[in-house]
């Protein structure tokens, strides 16, 4: 049974300030680097064999991958990038809500493209395309983004038009694992963050 582990990147300064990042190439913050180091320490005790490592080429994902697997080859793939939010990138949701284009896009972001950007259907399409290219006899790890991982989960579950963004909570450096057995795809875990302290920014921490 092969497996795919999806890992969200560590936190950035724009995450902390609530700015839409999308394709804007923001590096990890010091806290994000610490999250990645905590994940690296946790995974050193893992017995799961990892054959291939993939990453979005955006700095926040690639830096996370390089911290977690410093001595491994990491293959970047643009299909793992976050949604392109177009004109909304760099602004907070409160700021974007003042934009005349926001309401129309926000009413149906799965089908409507953000001005100058993508729709979530576009994101799901390229992420699902990437999924189909993975070796069928190997275990893979991919470092990506919340939107990308949510669309991959939705694709595996057969959800045609998943609701936007916060229906699946994914903490920074949280791990999601999908198992493949024949034609069956099984989501084995979502948002595994045992490596992180509960004193961080997780709003759902116990």
Question: Which SSEs are present, and which pair or pack?
Answer:
Layout: E1 2-8, H1 13-17, H2 30-43, E2 52-55, H3 59-68, E3 75-76, H4 93-96, H5 102-107, H6 120-132, E4 140-144, H7 146-157, E5 175-181, E6 184-192
Parallel strand pairs: 1-4, 2-3, 2-4
Antiparallel strand pairs: 1-5, 5-6
Helix pairs in contact: 2-3, 6-7
Question: Could you characterize the architecture of this molecule?
Answer:
With 206 residues, the protein is of the alpha/beta class. Helix content is 31%, strand content 17%. The protein has helices at residues 13-17, 30-43, 59-68, 93-96, 102-107, 120-132, 146-157; strands at residues 2-8, 52-55, 75-76, 140-144, 175-181, 184-192. Helix 3 links the parallel strand 2 (52-55) and strand 3. Helix 6 packs across helix 7. It is globular and about 50 Å long.
């Amino acid at each position: 049974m092969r497996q795919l582990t999806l890992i969200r990147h560590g936190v950035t300064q724009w995450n902390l300030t609530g700015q839409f990042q999308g394709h804007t190439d923001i590096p990890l913050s010091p806290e994000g680097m610490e999250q990645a180091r905590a994940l690296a320490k946790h995974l050193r005790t893992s017995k799961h064999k990892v054959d291939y490592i993939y990453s979005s080429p955006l700095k926040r994902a690639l830096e996370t991958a390089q911290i977690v697997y410093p001595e491994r080859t990491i293959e970047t793939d643009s299909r793992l990038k976050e949604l392109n939010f177009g004109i909304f990138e760099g602004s907070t949701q409160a700021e974007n809500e003042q934009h005349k284009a926001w309401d129309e896009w926000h009413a149906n972001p799965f089908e409507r493209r953000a001005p100058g950007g993508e729709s979530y259907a576009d994101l799901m399409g390229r992420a699902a395309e990437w999924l189909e290219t993975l070796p069928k006899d190997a275990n893979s790890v991919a470092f990506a983004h919340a939107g990308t991982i949510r669309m991959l989960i939705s694709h595996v579950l057969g959800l045609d038009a998943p609701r936007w963004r916060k229906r699946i909570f994914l903490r920074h450096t949280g791990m999601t694992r999908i198992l493949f057995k024949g034609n069956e795809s099984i989501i084995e875990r979502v948002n595994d963050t045992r490596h992180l302290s509960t004193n961080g920014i997780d709003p759902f921490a116990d």
